[in-house]
């Protein structure tokens, strides 16, 4: 497991770190009882929690947009849900800092929730074994759904809490209350390939309860055939993707990713121009596969590309943006990394 064992006795200050995630394939399936294949990345949120003498929560974030108070609901929600688990959480000073882009589709929200929860675990001397990590992930999902009002499906929090170096996680939500999580080795760099995240620069707000995300959930619940066709086929693609990874059949994995994007664009209708332009430019420049990742309506793409074509693909995407007078996109090469950990806990 990734974390050093937290100190057995309660501390006065503790630091927790939780990663953002990329979903390789399997989008909008978690809340539909389906399959997804996320992995934790090396962009992460760090939370420092300090015990207070009173029962207040005092929160600061370097990244919180000026004038935005809504972000504190994530922290308040996590503390409330941990207390519901029976954790004896005191009043806290909470300081947050992050390298995960906010609203960029790499799940800064789950990284924030899980960083705070992990720091609190360190503060209380609560060991983070596998079962506790799942409980924490679920508590964080409830915090986002019930306290913030963003009805997320649970993939993001599981990836942040259970991520493992060099692995993606196959998550099966058939049993919503007990999602099954299977680590899948993802040895792309061993075969000369890279995973490239491209940030379109377009931001979404999932906490907007009437936004497209909540609407898609309602459409699925109401049996909208085209939305459900995406979900059924996407689940089949996830199964096929795991087989392709096991066989190290990388062009096949790439084709499945690109097909997933087409389905999210045409059947699920959650893509936007800039996502489509990045995907098309990347494929045109020889990437094996490319798709939007995360809920859509902006955010990032994930592209599977031979390491030696990385520069060509990046240049092609940048050129496509320039041709449309759009501000340059951001690129990050990512590796599947470890899940949340207690960085320090001091008495
Ligand atoms: P994503 O999870 O894809 O980044 P969301 O809309 O789910 O997008 O979550 C983004 C929101 O989470 C932000 O608008 C903000 O309220 C909150 N948030 C995430 N990380 C931080 C942070 N480091 N500091 C303050 N707020 C944050
Ligand atoms: Mg989010």
List keywords for this structure.
347 residues, alpha+beta, Ribosomal Protein S5, domain 2, Alpha-Beta Plaits, 2 domains, 5-stranded mixed β-sheet, 4-stranded antiparallel β-sheet, 9 helices, 12 strands, binds adenosine-5'-diphosphate, binds magnesium ion
Structure described in brief:
With 347 residues, the chain is of the alpha+beta class. The protein contains nine helices and twelve strands.
Written account of the structure:
The protein is of the alpha+beta class. The protein folds into two domains: 13-185 and 336-346, Ribosomal Protein S5, domain 2 (2-Layer Sandwich), CATH 3.30.230; 189-334, 2-Layer Sandwich (Alpha-Beta Plaits). It is built from nine helices and twelve strands. The strands form three sheets. It has a five-stranded mixed sheet. Helix 1 (72-84) crosses helix 2 (108-124), helix 2 packs across helix 4 and helix 6 runs antiparallel to helix 7 (250-266). It is globular and about 60 Å long. The chain starts with 12 loop residues before the first strand and ends with a strand. The site of magnesium ion has 5 residues, from helix 2.
Q: Mind sketching the topology for me?
A:
Elements: E1 13-23, E2 35-36, E3 38-51, E4 57-61, H1 72-84, E5 92-98, H2 108-124, H3 130-148, H4 155-162, E6 167-172, E7 180-185, E8 193-199, H5 212-221, H6 225-246, H7 250-266, H8 273-284, E9 289-293, E10 300-306, H9 310-323, E11 330-334, E12 341-346
Helix pairs in contact: 1-2, 1-3, 2-3, 2-4, 3-4, 6-7, 8-9
Bound molecules: adenosine-5'-diphosphate and magnesium ion.
Residues 45, 61, 63-64, 70-71, 74, 96, 98, 102-109, 112, 150, 205-207, 294 line the site of adenosine-5'-diphosphate.
């Amino acid at each position: 497991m990734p974390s050093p064992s937290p100190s057995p006795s309660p501390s006065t200050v503790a630091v927790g770190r939780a990663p953002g995630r990329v979903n390789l394939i399997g989008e909008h399936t978690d809340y539909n009882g389906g399959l997804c294949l996320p992995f934790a990345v090396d962009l992460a949120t760090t939370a420092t929690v300090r015990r207070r003498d009173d029962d207040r929560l005092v929160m600061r974030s370097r990244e919180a947009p000026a004038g935005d108070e809504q972000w504190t609901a994530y922290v308040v929600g996590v503390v409330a849900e941990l207390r519901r688990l029976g954790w004896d959480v005191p009043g806290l000073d909470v300081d947050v800092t992050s390298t995960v882009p906010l609203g960029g589709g790499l799940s800064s929200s789950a990284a924030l929730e899980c960083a705070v929860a992990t720091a609190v675990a360190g503060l209380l001397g609560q060991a983070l074994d596998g079962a506790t990590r799942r409980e924490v992930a679920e508590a964080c999902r409830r915090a986002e759904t019930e306290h913030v009002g963003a009805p997320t499906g649970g993939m993001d929090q599981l990836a942040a809490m259970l991520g493992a170096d060099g692995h993606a996680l196959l998550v099966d939500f058939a049993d919503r209350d007990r999602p099954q999580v299977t680590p899948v080795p993802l040895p792309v760099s061993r075969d000369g390939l890279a995973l490239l995240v491209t940030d379109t620069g377009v931001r979404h707000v999932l906490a907007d309860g009437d936004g497209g995300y909540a609407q898609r959930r309602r459409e699925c619940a109401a049996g909208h055939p085209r939305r459900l066709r995406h979900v059924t086929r996407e689940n089949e693609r996830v199964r096929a993707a795991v087989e392709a990874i096991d066989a190290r059949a990388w062009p096949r994995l790439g084709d499945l990713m690109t097909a997933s994007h087409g389905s999210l664009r045409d059947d699920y209708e959650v893509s936007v121009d800039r996502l489509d332009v990045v995907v098309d430019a990347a494929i045109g420049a020889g990437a094996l596969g490319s798709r939007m990742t995360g809920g859509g309506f902006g955010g990032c793409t994930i592209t599977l590309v031979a390491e030696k074509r990385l520069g060509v693909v990046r240049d092609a995407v940048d050129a496509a943006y320039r041709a449309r007078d759009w501000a340059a996109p951001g690129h990050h090469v990512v590796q599947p990394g470890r899940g949340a950990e207690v960085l320090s806990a001091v008495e």
